[in-house]
Structures
1.
Amino acid sequence: MRQLGDGINAKVTWKEITLAGIVTDGGKSKDFETGDWRNSKPVWLAENCKQCLICTAFCPDSSIPVKDKKRVDFEYKHCKGCGICEKVCPFNAIEMKGEEE
Amino acid sequence: MGIKDRLSGNEATAMAMKSMNMDVMAAFPITPSTEIPEQFSQYVANGLTDTVFVPVESEHSAMSACIGSQAAGARSCTATSSNGLALMHEMLHIASAMRLPITMACITRAITGPINIHNDHSDAMSSRDCGWIQIHAEDVQEAYDNYIMSVRIAEHKKVLLPVMICQDGFITSHAVENVELLEEEDIRSFVGFYEPDYYLLNPELKVAMGPYDPPTYLMEHKRQQAEAMIDSLDVIKEIYDEFGKLTGRYYDLIETYKIEDAERIIILLGSSAGTAKIVVDELRSKGEKVGIIKIRSYRPFPGKLIREALKSPKVVAVLDKAEGLSSIGGPVYSDVCAALNGNAGFKIVNYIYGIGGRDVRTDDIHEVFADLQDDIDGKESKAKTAANYRYLALRE
Amino acid sequence: MNDLLEIRWHGRGGQGVKTAALLLADVLFYSGKYVQGFPEYGPERMGAPVTAYNRISNDKIRVHSNIYEPGYVAVVDHSLIRSANVTKGLKKDGAILINTKLDPEEAKSLLKDFEGKVFTIDAETISIDILGKYFPNMPMLAGIIKMTKMMDENVFLENIETSLSRKFASKPQLVEGNMQVIKRSLEEVKGI
């Protein structure tokens, strides 16, 4: 039987599908790209950012990477565009924009 | 090798659970199954088993705890009856869909409405579509043997389904009878060590169980469950044979009694099968061609075996200890009719009997056989209800 | 099936009727018989009428119904003679044991339409003399053995001591008193 990420998709037959839908190994949600659910996206205004990192703690989709104790630009593969980061940012350093803009 | 003893059905069941040294028992007491957790908790308190006993606050919680512990990798069991089984209903589906081989003693009792504590099969029959294997016992010996065999059936890699081991409330659960027990070491080597492929407490292979199953997948998973139920027909027989070699007590999914040349056959399950055998003996001694088929495995339903066993009867009666309230007869009747697929070539009638603890006497079984003779003779049946859907020992 | 012996017990909740039926099954099991002992459940209340049954046979017992034509009846509470139909279905050549201070002749006159044998035992006096409390079930159990002659009395005494020791494993002091009750009861059963 196959596992998720191992060819489990809408074409898999009942004989091949994972027993009881059991998911093996952790971190499977990484393979499920929720970025295409987004209809507006957060944009980082680096000039306003004080690197308080509140946004990284609040982001439900781990879409704000941190390098050397500083946040860097958004990683949009899993960002659903929920806008929480914009709401919690005390410095107006994040702005939601339409996908088309 | 066997140990001769006299125990009630409940005592024998608790004894079987103790002998297998189940990892977890989670239970909430309800008549008439209360004695099982009561006695089992004494075994635990006295150090005769190292089972974790979880006294939960409801049957819903009992089944939830069993699901959690079995998913974690522990061989888990419970016992219940009647409304307790009804309260578990939601979790019964989850246990089977998660393919967790939990075992449960179901001490059959009428589901309340109006209030009743006595035996019938309305609880077990209400759970027939939950994806649980369901095995019924005629007497204390079968209740004991069935439990031990069921652990192996449930955990078989081709099955991985929970099993409900049913015995008739009070009639079997509270009757002391002769029973032959197995040595504990024989039982433990028969059931072996529980080694699931996937379990939550395995640090080597991390798993998530019971995920959301969208329309893309649920139907495929149900088909997989159905396949396990179909495969269990052969697995059950295989394990019965292995148990037979160990004990000398051989079982099959159905038991036939004097049906070879029988013109009139009764199909039923549970304790009344023993009473019916006495009647068959009496009528056979007068030269009457009668026999019975006892269904031991109700789920999976052994349709093929029943079809093959019904070689050339003139008329067959299916007895249901649950009303079903379907307007066309009880649940076992529906299943037997489905098994025959409309090609029976003989008349098949249904009797609703023994509801809410109404005692099933030899006289009642005699009445069924007499009615069946009337059916053969073309006389108008004494049964007052619709031609094929009748009641036994009902005040008209 | 000819050797099948069927017994029906009548008593009241709290009198140990179920216990007596199960102990009877126990002692006959020790003698190598096939046994059944089961109560008919009703309202589980002190004082409510209770019925229990025994079947004893040399062969496997397959019937699983209540007993309608018993060979023997045991009436644990004599007041039931008036309220319950204790001789119902009792075989003509059967016998009935009643817990009462009356003689068998007097007891028989209270039973309607019963021609068989009547045995009596004064369980109250025996129980209170020895235990200081009224438990009618042990005297009745001894009375049943005397009435039915289904096993040797010495074997019975041995078996019942084993059974009581098992039943009262956590209260062994109760075995001695009950054994005295049983021994005296075997002597005091009266029958016609």
2.
Amino acid sequence: MPSQPLIRTTGLSKQYPGVLALDSVDFELMPGEVHVLFGENGAGKSTLISMLAGANSPSGGTIELNGEKMRFGSVADAQAKGIYTVFQEFSLIPTLSVAENIFLGWEPMKGPFVDHREMRRRAREMFQELDFEIDPTEVTGRLSRAQQQMVEITKAFHGDLSVLILDEPTASLTDREVDHLFDFIETLKARGVGIIYISHRMQEFARIADRVTVLRDGAKIGTVAMDETDDDALVEMMTGRAISEIYPQIAHNPGEVLLRAEGVRTNGVQAADVDIRAGEVLGVAGLVGCGKSRLFRAMMGVAPRLAGRVTLKGQDITHAPTRQIIHHGMYYLSPDRKGEGLDLAKTANDNLAVNLVMGGRGGTGLINWSAVREASVQIADYVELHEGYRSRLVSQLSGGNQQKVLFGKCFGQDADVYILDEPTVGVDMGTRAALYLLIKELAEAGKAVVVISSDLPEVMHLAHRMLVMAHGRLSAELSGDEMTEDTILKHFFDESGATQ
Amino acid sequence: MSSDTQATGVKAWITRLFVKVGVLPFFLLGALVIFTLLSSKFLTGQNLINVARQSVYLVLVSMGQMLALVTGGFDLSVGTAIALTSVVSAMGMVWLAGIFPDVIWLAILLGAFLGFGAALMVGLVNGIGVAYFEVSPFIMTLGVSSVGAGFALFLTGGVPVSGLPFQFADTFGFGRLWSIPVPVIIAVICIVIMWVLMARTRLGTQIYAVGGNIKAAHLSAINTRRTLLLAYMICALIASLTGLLLTARVESGEANLGGSIALESIAACVIAGVSLRGGIGRVENVVLGAFFIVLVQNGMNLAQVSSYMQMVLLGALLILAVIFDQIRYRIIMQGR
């Protein structure tokens, strides 16, 4: 490794009124290095990269780029100096074509006019080089989230890229897409680009990381070389607790069948039969886009139901509207907490109150707000939402705390079947452990719990029984010792009988 | 980012007040100071009572408008609901009074119900369009407003409906009960009902939830379509009641009543901190917001500002209020 770091921060701090978001952090990035930033939500990772990306200015400390002190006035300023950041929130314009998005602000010209043909040619070339299968003429808004992410990454390849910052880039990618991304990161490394990589997925670190810097509560805990550490040590650094404390042992006492789906079909999902029993955690695994979420959304009446029959506790709910299904005792936790889970401009308490009122906890006549408030305190205690956060607007909470509020909403209405769709998406390990305990308590209290997740270790550790989906079909049902990573992965790519 | 600056105590307090209740206290204070300086008649008990009486109509309509705004839409057809109510109820009363000259109160009552019915049709069509066909509230209520205004003019041929029963105007236009003007009493009752609706009933909670995040509301077992429909219908009903009171006040059925009230009611709501993105808004603040608009109009009259100039100022005030709403929303969403 050359001795001169690409980026070096010394004593970098960020003070918000009342909160020290980053506490004098020393950090360095070498050329050709993949440096992972690891830490729980709110640990300061986003604050650190926002300052390196030029989106935010530090309140203390210095940033050096190639040994020169820098102050970035804006994101564009940082980009001009070769630092490109792919944020979780995309900067794509959904109504433009893919090629237009990639060349936004850099359009190839032919005289006074934009040369669209050249633009498309170069976009196609870039995609070929990166091995991404995207049509440059497609309207960006019609792409999947994963494809949009790829477009976003492709945008980084203008001018001389020296530092690429990736904020949770794999959160919405399928495994195959992740492979592409990693191949591509290798290519960049070979070119001497330094990569700062933020992720919660530890299984990725071993594959690509050179060094890992762990942050906790705004302070740097330490920087370790990846080949000198392991997952357990990293988790311990991040949380201060051991990994065995994260996944609980859930007792398995299967009771009667609460939810039965027969031949349920919807767009992209072919005739699926599912039985869910009381006191059981059913895992549903599969690649992004395999239809695992859609199948259950169809049962909930959120996605269109084309065929089949669904019964909940013996009652036919096939054509019932969502609200009646909820009243009959089936609750759906959305994977999209911002889009369809929470009201961001309201407080955590207000968000909980809606479900409590709808669940009848405010009385039947005029709402008894003191009863609602009492119940919402109980729920907030139960999901371990810190008292200081309860009357804060949800938009101001970290992802983990938002997810706790979303879980809290589950308990506002009495249900017997809980469909938890990606229950820990974008949530840090510490919060995950707390949420897993809630799942354990639900199952052990005799509820039927469905955990739909793209996070394989999560489903494997929690589920008593597991459905694997591939290409819109149930490709396997596994239980007990059959639930090994190899077996599951094999069924992920099950093409048997699939009509693609 | 405003939170970056070192806020002093006073500034922090002002920011907190602004985030909590919006721009209204500042506007109200400014108006009081300016108009007191411009006219010695402004800050007198008599004038303020006058303003209270005049503001009844806007207060009522604004509360209805608030419902539409809280669901995340708005209602440009409140003026049409008023005009339609005025024309239909006046024609009904005149016609029925001819049939039952001896039971004049029955004629008034039935006439009023015809007016309510006409306005409810407006609300129903708005609600069905917005809730079930997902037409944007802007287009839906704009279209309905043209349709309704057309009907009102068609029914009357553009000529005011005169010859209303004397008792109607005498009671609801100029009457007093315990020396309080009847319209004020009706407005107070409506304010109480609306407050209870929004703060203490499930429907109120549902309206807030639908405006805050309609998908989340759907997954919380809320019938989002019914909620939207009811919001537009209640909005039209309150506008209709206003139309009836205005008809009594002008003693004739007029198709041009309520011409500028859509703009004024939206301005009143936005100034009172009702979010244009939905989900946020309080009845008591909206009442104050409407009162503020009428106060400004009164002050401008006393200061002899021409009515043309008043239109300019009102429009500017609305835009200013929306700008402040935007700033407030930014502060809320950034937090910390």
3.
Amino acid sequence: MRIFLLNLLLAISWAALTGNATLVNLSFGFLLGYLALRISPELPGGSIYFKRLQNFSRLCIFFLQELVLSSLRAAWEVFSPILKSRPIIVRIPLEIHERNQIFVLINLISLTPGTMVLDIAPDNSALIVHTMFVDNPDRFRQEIRLGFERRVREAIS
Amino acid sequence: MVLDELFIAALILIGSFFGFSAALGLLRMPDFYTRMSTSGKAATLCCGLLLAGVATLFQDAQVTARAVAAILFLLLTVPIGVHMIARAAFRVGTPMWRGSFVKPRFKNPKKELQ
């Protein structure tokens, strides 16, 4: 966390020095700060931060890709003359148990079109998910487990 | 300059396309859950693309900051709203679409749990 604040401080000072506080310049400053911290030796807690930042950006990229793909699929479904999808409701047992991770996972599942979290087991052990595009419950469980759940577990703790 | 304008136009047009498909989904889908999934969430991408287009059009720190904040709040609030409405429907037992156009069937979602 301290390294993240340091990186943010570097980004802000880059924006202040160049006198240009647009979003693009701030992100460029963040990237420069990241590289500077990366090559500096022996930061306490540095390796955890770098790993987590990497995992987090990987999660973001995966989520954006999933969002675009499933939006296109939902639009195709809406525009095709015959409704071909077979919606199902699946119970997915969870492997993660921390509240923050479950919160992020539910947000991501609910944000992708076609899937929607209907309910959570009272002891946070399973989700009940409605899906439009996959008609095999076991394959859907596998997709969630290998796609979102693994990446959320790696990125957030 | 022309390339810039084409990029912005593409962003806004694709955003409106998804908005249109969301509205059409609300009309065309057979039951509550599929309506919710096609309309509620396509709106995220639609608003995100529109706001991104507006931010690149104005090239102004104030507008960009507001667009980014709006996108962040959309990403935070839309899934919670969707989840609360869907959970209420599921607990009440709103019938769920199982079948085809040849033979429409609606069933209680709690009995269809797999």
